[in-house]
């Protein structure tokens, strides 16, 4: 049976419409999921929405609706976006679903059974925007001396009776975990940040709330709902069948990768493994904290008015141009910046002018001059050399994707495209048509083989276009190829007028 591979994105807060940062995370996870499927793995890929918590309650109140109504409305935009961007997720989870309540209450019970939960009074700082508690020493001073979280969000003083989780008990086990598994937190820079944080000591964590009721009820403790991060993180287990489906759990848990943004690495690499250790559940193999997308170098925010709608970009430039740009131009793990110009420049240079043009001129030539049919012809050494170069480029892509070096993988793949374009210019099949048709057939056959290999390899990045191109190439044959009449797969993009 195929080896399982479980990958997740963060689940997104549906307190507003999705922005390009959410799209980026889904696209990156999707490319990895598709890549692993192509390697023969039995992939389970989960994304979804994180619907509880004070942020949802407050946003709903401002809009004069209930949190559930807000979640229902906004979650729909996230699943629509996933569909539009060709995200091949196997489950779109909503934390308001019944099986998720069950999983959250089961992990809670397991932590209680371990003696890691106790009732006390919480007094401290809370950021609604981050849904996070902060210690006094972590706060920074904003304009006019107001206190802000280290992420720059407002904090408010909170005092209430809550359940606490004995996080302090897990300081050493967590440090041991990081030491024994250097790849548990990636990339390296985020790992160092977390090491410093945990070495600095861990306070017990408040894990329930009594001031509102939009959350998963704490078992046996009326009036308490779980702190939103306890239930949010548990979504990964819900998807894997926890607590009842032991066959499914054995197959998909522990997860191979939690792909998340750099702002929530602490929740995933400190709180989450501590909860799991307490509940005696295996730990995920890796947490990868990707960087942030910046709009022309600026942080996106509603107040600045520079938040970008990914659906509009996909609509105008095409889903695959957007996907290709994000995966090629952002060095995976670092922050990246985008603009309409950058998308157009990259998509035109690589997809239209190089790969698209290679495919189009090869296929159009065959359709026009060979009746769409290529024969074996007379092979020469240059043919084997090209195919070896393309193999090397595609193997480079595979190695890089195994290691999550996504942009490097795409860059290596492009070296195969360049090799084909040099080959076609050097072999000049248009000149051979009259003088040496046998040789012309061998050249065209070599190109078709090379283009097919390149299309199959890049499919996780540009799935829709690769599928169209593969359909035009027709069935793979050792000797004869029959190709359908070609239409350009990667049209040249024009910059949007008001961009
Ligand atoms: O944090 N660029 O949800 P969220 C790239 N519900 N990624 C970005 C980004 C940007 N500009 N802005 C946000 C939450 N993200 C929690 C997660 S998981 C159990 C719970 C990323 O909607 C962000 O880092 O605020 C996170 O990984 C994801 O989008 C969802 O953010």
UniProtKB/TrEMBL annotation:
It catalyses: tRNA(Met) + L-methionine + ATP = L-methionyl-tRNA(Met) + AMP + diphosphate. Pfam families: Anticodon_3, tRNA-synt_1g. Monomer. Belongs to the class-I aminoacyl-tRNA synthetase family. MetG type 2B subfamily. Its EC number is 6.1.1.10. CDD domains: Anticodon_Ia_Met (cd07957), MetRS_core (cd00814). GO terms for cellular component: cytoplasm. This is Methionine--tRNA ligase. Residues 375-476 form the Methionyl-tRNA synthetase anticodon-binding domain. GO terms for biological process: methionyl-tRNA aminoacylation. Keywords: Aminoacyl-tRNA synthetase, ATP-binding, Cytoplasm, Ligase, Nucleotide-binding, Protein biosynthesis. It is an enzyme of class 6 (ligase). Residues 6-363 form the Methionyl/Leucyl tRNA synthetase domain. It is found in: Cytoplasm.
């Amino acid at each position: 049976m195929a080896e399982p591979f479980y990958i997740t994105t963060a689940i997104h807060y549906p307190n507003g419409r999705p922005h390009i940062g959410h799209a980026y995370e889904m696209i990156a996870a999707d490319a990895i999921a598709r890549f692993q499927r192509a390697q023969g793995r039995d992939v389970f890929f989960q994304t979804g929405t994180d619907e509880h918590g004070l942020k949802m309650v407050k946003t709903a109140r401002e809009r004069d609706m209930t949190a559930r109504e807000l979640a229902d409305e906004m979650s729909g935009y996230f699943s629509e976006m996933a569909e539009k961007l060709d995200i091949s997720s196997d489950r779109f989870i909503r934390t308001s679903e019944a099986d998720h309540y069950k999983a959250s209450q089961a992990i809670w019970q397991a932590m209680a059974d371990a003696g890691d939960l106790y009732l006390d009074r919480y007094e401290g700082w809370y950021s609604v925007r981050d849904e996070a508690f902060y210690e006094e020493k972590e706060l920074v001073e904003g304009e006019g001396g107001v206190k802000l979280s280290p992420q720059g969000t407002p904090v408010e003083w909170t005092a209430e009776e809550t359940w606490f989780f004995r996080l302090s008990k897990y300081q050493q086990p967590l440090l041991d975990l990081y030491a024994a598994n250097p790849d548990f937190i990636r990339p390296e820079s985020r790992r160092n940040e977390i090491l410093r944080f945990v070495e600095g000591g861990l306070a017990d964590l408040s894990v329930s709330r009594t001031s509102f009721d939009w959350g998963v009820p704490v078992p046996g403790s009326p009036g308490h709902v779980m702190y939103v991060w306890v239930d949010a993180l548990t979504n990964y287990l819900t998807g894997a069948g926890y607590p009842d489906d032991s066959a499914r759990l054995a197959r998909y848990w522990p997860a191979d990768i939690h792909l998340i943004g750099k702002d929530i690495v602490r929740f995933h690499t400190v709180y989450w493994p501590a909860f799991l250790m307490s509940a005696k559940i295996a730990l995920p193999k890796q947490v990868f904290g990707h960087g942030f997308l910046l709009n022309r170098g600026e942080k996106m925010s509603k107040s600045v008015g520079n938040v970008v709608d990914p659906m509009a970009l996909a609509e105008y430039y095409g889903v695959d141009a957007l996907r290709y740009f994000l995966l090629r131009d952002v060095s995976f793990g670092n922050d990246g910046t985008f603009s309409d110009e950058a998308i157009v420049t990259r998509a035109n240079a690589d997809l239209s002018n190089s790969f698209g043009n290679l495919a189009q001129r090869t296929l159009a030539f065959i359709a026009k001059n060979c009746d769409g049919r290529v024969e074996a012809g007379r092979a020469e050494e240059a043919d084997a050399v090209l195919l070896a170069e393309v193999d090397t480029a595609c193997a480079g892509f595979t190695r890089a994707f195994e290691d999550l070096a996504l942009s490097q993988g795409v860059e290596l793949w492009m070296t195969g495209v360049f090799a084909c374009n040099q080959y076609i210019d050097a072999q000049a099949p248009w000149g051979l048509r009259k003088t040496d048709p046998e040789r012309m057939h061998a050249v065209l056959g070599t190109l078709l083989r090379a283009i097919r290999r390149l299309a199959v390899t890049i499919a996780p990045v540009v799935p829709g276009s690769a599928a169209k191109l593969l359909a035009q190439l027709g069935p793979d044959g050792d000797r004869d190829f029959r190709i359908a009449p070609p239409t350009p797969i990667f049209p040249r993009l024009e910059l949007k007028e008001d961009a």
